[in-house]
UniProtKB/TrEMBL annotation, chain A:
It comes from Ataeniobius toweri. InterPro entries: PsdUridine_synth_cat_dom_sf, PsdUridine_synth_N, Trub2. Residues 91-236 form the Pseudouridine synthase II N-terminal domain. It comes from the Eukaryota. This is Pseudouridine synthase II N-terminal domain-containing protein. PANTHER family: PSEUDOURIDINE SYNTHASE-RELATED (PTHR13195), PSEUDOURIDYLATE SYNTHASE TRUB2, MITOCHONDRIAL (PTHR13195:SF0). Belongs to the pseudouridine synthase TruB family.
From TrEMBL, chain B:
This is RCC1-like G exchanging factor-like protein. Coiled coil: none annotated. InterPro entries: Mitochondrial_GEF_domain, RCC1-like_dom, RCC1/BLIP-II, Reg_chr_condens. The gene is RCC1L_1. The keyword Repeat applies. Residues 53-311 form the RCC1-like domain. SUPFAM superfamilies: RCC1/BLIP-II. PROSITE patterns: RCC1_2, RCC1_3. It comes from Ataeniobius toweri. Keywords: Repeat. RCC repeats lie at residues 52-112, 116-179, 180-235, 236-288. It comes from the Eukaryota. The lineage of its organism: Eukaryota, Metazoa, Chordata, Craniata, Vertebrata.
Amino acid sequence: MRSPAVRMFRSLEGLFCVYKPAGVHWKLVRDTIETNLLKGVNATSAQPLPHEVRFLSNPNNKPEAAGGLALRAAAVPVLSKHPLVTGPEFQHIKVGVGHLLDASSSGVFVLAVGNGNRTLNDLYRTRTTREYTLECEFGTATHDFTQMGRVVERSTYDHITLDKMERVISMLEGANQKALRMYSSVDMSSQEAYELAVKGLLGPDGKSVPILTGLRCIHFQPPNFTLEVQCLNETQKYLRKVVHEMGLELRSTAVCKGVRRTRDGPFTLQDALTRHHWTAADVMQAIQQYRSKKRSKKGSRTLTDKAVLQTSEETLSLSGKRS
Amino acid sequence: MALSCVRLCPRHMGPALHVCGYATLSRASRPQEKSSGGPVFQYVGEHRQPTHKVFVWGFSFTGALGIPSFVVPDSGRKKPRKYQFTPYRLETAEQISSAACGYGFTLMASSTKDVTKLWGMGLNKDSQLGFQRTQHSRHKSYDYVLEPSPVALPLIQPQQTRVVQVSCGRAHSLVLTDQEGVFSMGNNAYGQCGRTIVEEEVYSGSHVIHRIEGFSSRVVQVACGQDHSLFLTDTGKVFSCGWGADGQTGLGHHSISSCPVEVGGDLGGVEVQQISTYGDCSLAVSRDGQLFGWGNSEYRQLTLATESTQVRRSDVQGCRNELNIGGDTYWKPYRFVNGLTCFIGLKCLIPLMSLHGIMTYGNIQYLDLQKIKKQHLLRLFLCMKICN
């Protein structure tokens, strides 16, 4: 007979994503979530204490009663099961994290609870891409490529036009496409490579250098501009470095004001929970949504002999492909 | 329960994380103010234009690309490069201001007052690049010029005159200077060079560079079709000479004209701003934005004018090159649409209406970039994008 706390914990197992605010270390986010989940799980209505039959001696009996002690049976609560004695039912919940975000970046941050950690592992062994929005500014170059760093150089940017920017972007895209082909472990002149490329599955398996599968400028108003990036195996510092290098290519300097992840695999900004919704109830709702989405995707696939891993791989890489 | 939560956090935090609590990270420096000290570097000026670089691509075996190693490789292990698919930088002695591609040859001109102002490379079997003296004999001329070689123009004042524009046709070329008029060289079998046709003239190894006479005023633009030439004067009149079997000379007849004659038809009294021609079709844009066309319309380059009630010559007995695939030939210029500038490909017309409006006529299945003027390349890429 499972306690309500355990039942609630079972319904909490799965994957969900939160919106990590900028300026906060990811560990604090994870710890806060874990704390809130513990609060929620341990706050479920306590079961009534079990009773056991104890034979209690009657203190009012006269001691000179003949033949021994007079005992009476009484049902007393089992004190060893009292919550103040045992402590809370759950003292630790395994909350795992997906792809990390550094302290000054914000955006979609995937977490997994309990058994969801196993799914998380499988999810990240398949090739998923992440999408970022980079807010950048021309005119300064700093030592750590962020706006808060020490200024290394300042330069003019009047000569930069959108077509020059597009030229640099297409050059970067070309280099990244070449890297994509190079790091995929198939022979380029084979039929297998063609079939993979047609499905959009051509790319590195596992670790590789960071590769941008898509890059475009969505807003251009000097000195500010915004880039949208889809990437593999990246770090946020690498993305800021890309912005810095783009500034150099344009014969000026550029710095990244903000990195914001808008998608991580199948999880988008729509699904992300904001800070006020980091409670157990909201997390449970998010996990239910994820589960129903997974169920509907599984149901729509008619290939029953293929492993779940492979179908999830295709789904994820299809969703990760640049539209 | 509260106790357990407090104990939870320090257990998992590393020693380095004790500093930052739930507040934002301490900033190393404030966001930079614009007025803070330090120099501001300027690497590129605000109005900088791309430098006058020359890039070549296309078929290289005639030497038209000007890179000898494509035709005759430097080392024995390399193979000759027949097609150069991507733009390849060509180093030039001077900054080139005008360039033109003909059928297997290229002319480049620089607007300098030096003696050497014109370079040519490629096919020279009709002396379209002038006389290119061979190394061993001063009476012989090279048939194929593999490197940009200077072309000597017979100028009266070579150190005062500048070359304004060059234009190349199938086997002839025209050079426009600012003070001394138009010079033509190459094949003159149909009078396209603007001089009297000499029967059985040998064009290979010819020294003839003719200065064209017969214009009413100063010529400001030249254009070469396949075997005909068009000239635009500063008063807005268009002159033409050369092969006219498809009416591309626009002179009202289908025969050859060996000296420049003014083009009439709808162009009479109109001030033309720009002319363009390629193959056997010609276009002119007037100063008030009207577009006129004449010549071959096999691929329906000029079909927009067929709805009008203009008279057109439908009997084609005199024509030689026409294939009669349902097209018409227009032997006089007809006005049909409004336009600003126009470009002509081998089988299609691309009038550039405005920066955003582009219309094309005719068959666009084969658009050879090699044959299109380099200075209009950016605009033409715009056209190509929209065509495709």
